[in-house]
Here is the input.
Amino acid sequence: MQAIFSRASVRSFDGRKVETEKIEALMKAAMAAPSACNQQPWEFVVVTEPETLRRLSECSPYAGCLRQAPLGIAVCMRTEGLRAPDYAQIDASAATENILLEAVHLGLGAVWLGIAPVPERMEAVRQVLGAPETIQPFGLVACGYPDKPVVPANRYDPARVHYERW
Here is the structure.
């Protein structure tokens, strides 16, 4: 539970590379996410090459932090062979959240950079990654060691909690 309340969007990193075993742990966490009909539509592209990170940072006006991140993860979705295709983005959201929580657990910082449902951003990421037409980029995660202490926000608002009825 502590990872949930310690998570914050981290957009600046100290430059250290993320170790291979930590990248694998992030991917295992992503694939442990729940999925409609257990369809697991996700595909992930792990990016550590600075030039590719730079190009991905230009796919959205909100992705600039990828330029100096040591690690980027593109969360993508297959479009073929899905039993519940309307739920693929929900499944990808769950996988992305698992990446963010595992990053906290591993002492990393991360931020979710939305790509879907904006067609131009999705296509730009697909082109940078060389993904086939049957793959739709969903989001990007910039990840690394935070360059300053992480201060999570308390977002609990009891006025938004309703019991039994509105």
